[in-house]
């Protein structure tokens, strides 16, 4: 059956009315994580002398990891749809999660690994992690946490997917202009 975007969970849970709503979600996630960190330090009788990253620094770090997702997908010769899906899943994750809560590298790798499954371009965790010199157990252990952050909603509607289909139709001669 065809998926129906207007009634999809992707639209219901991941389409925000405006950029300000996304920014509020990120600010709330950041504030919650920083409060949690402060309470952990206070409970341990420690004080925090470290300065937290600024929101601009956090955004820069996220952009770096988004670029790495694209680089890794190309290096592994993964289909473009895996690249698109991995990016969407990663961005969704860090809309509601603070950058300091989980290892960015592991979440980035998990996003690619999960995207491969979602887009039916499966690669084993062992094979994938061998190529990036990471312990597959770490990616597999992060998978359920990653899925929970995404509320187990993995359907992605990439803007480039209809264009890819159209170009395939043209190449196959199925589209007469």
TrEMBL record:
Keyword Cytoplasm carried by entry: no
Keywords, in A-Z order: Cyclin
Species whose genome carries this gene: Ostreococcus mediterraneus
Family matches, as Pfam families: Cyclin_N
Lineage top rank: taxon: Eukaryota
Classification lineage: Eukaryota, Viridiplantae, Chlorophyta, Mamiellophyceae, Mamiellales
Domain Cyclin-like: start-end pairs: 67-148
Gene3D superfamilies for the chain: Cyclin-like
InterPro entries the UniProt entry points to: Cyclin-like_dom, Cyclin-like_sf, Cyclin_N
Protein name as catalogued: Cyclin-like domain-containing protein
Family: Belongs to the cyclin family.
């Amino acid at each position: 059956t065809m998926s129906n975007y207007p009634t999809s969970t992707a639209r219901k849970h991941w389409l925000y009315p405006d950029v300000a709503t996304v920014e509020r979600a990120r600010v709330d996630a950041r504030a919650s994580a920083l409060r949690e960190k402060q309470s952990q330090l206070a409970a341990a009788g420690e004080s925090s002398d470290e300065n937290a990253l600024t929101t601009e620094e956090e955004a820069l770090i996220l952009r770096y990891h988004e670029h790495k997702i694209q680089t890794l997908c190309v290096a592994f010769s993964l289909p473009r749809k895996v690249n698109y899906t991995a990016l969407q899943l990663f961005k969704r994750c860090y809309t509601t999660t603070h950058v300091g809560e989980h290892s960015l590298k592991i979440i980035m790798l998990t996003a690619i690994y999960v995207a491969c499954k979602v887009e039916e371009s499966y690669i084993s965790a062992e094979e994938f992690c061998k190529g990036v010199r990471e312990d597959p157990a770490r990616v597999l252990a992060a998978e359920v946490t990653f899925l929970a952050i995404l509320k187990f909603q993995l359907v992605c509607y990439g803007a480039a997917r209809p264009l890819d289909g159209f170009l395939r139709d043209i190449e196959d001669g199925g589209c007469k202009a």
